[in-house]
Amino acid sequence: MKLEQDLGSSYMGCDSMARTPIACDSTSMDQSDLRCELERLHPASFGWALWCCDHRHDEAEEVLQMAYLKVMEGAARYGGRASLRTWFFSVVRRTAWEQRRRRWVRELLLAQWARQQAAGPAPEQALSVCERNSELRRALAALPARQRDVLHLVFYQELTIEEAAEVLKIGLGTARTHFARGKARLRELLTHGEKR
User: Fold this and answer.
1) Per-domain boundaries in the chain
2) d(CA 58, CA 24)
3) What are the residue ranges in the chain where pLDDT is below 70?
4) Statement: 123-192 belongs to CATH 3.30.70.1140
5) Can you say whether the dihedral through the CA atoms of 125, 131, 132, 134 is positive or negative?
6) pLDDT, tens digit (0-9, with 9 covering 90-100), for 111-123
């Protein structure tokens, strides 16, 4: 892969004389010199990216692209304290570390999610939960409409009683009464079965 592809269409190209290392310091290096020097370092940089990415070719390409992008956008700046090669290799190493950390976090979150899915209720517990949900639906259906609506808005839609009153266009006192009576009747229905 050529650096001109990596850097995009703004690549100016380097003449054959630029294949030898140029004197690099932070004051004399302009964008075109930097691009030429990075192109010269590309094979070695890719080898270093491969090493930093445990020889994962696709990941090394991505890391190197991100490192080039950091340099070209100014997120990583060459200060002249070390050779350009040493500095750029440190940018590649840091980018690979960031990429590895992102992958590790993704894998960790995925593993946690998988454990949560696997730790679901056992089949007999799932049946019990299903039965309780059916009982709850039957008990809710047995309540008067206003009580059922207030309970649904408060418990399932997570509204306050005041907000439920606004939604139902009833007074706050009326909503509180329906809420209290609905809870009491629901408790009775669920603990003693329907008595109608």
Assistant:
1) 3-118, 123-192
2) 30
3) 1-29, 120-127, 193-196
4) no
5) positive
6) 888 887 777 666 6
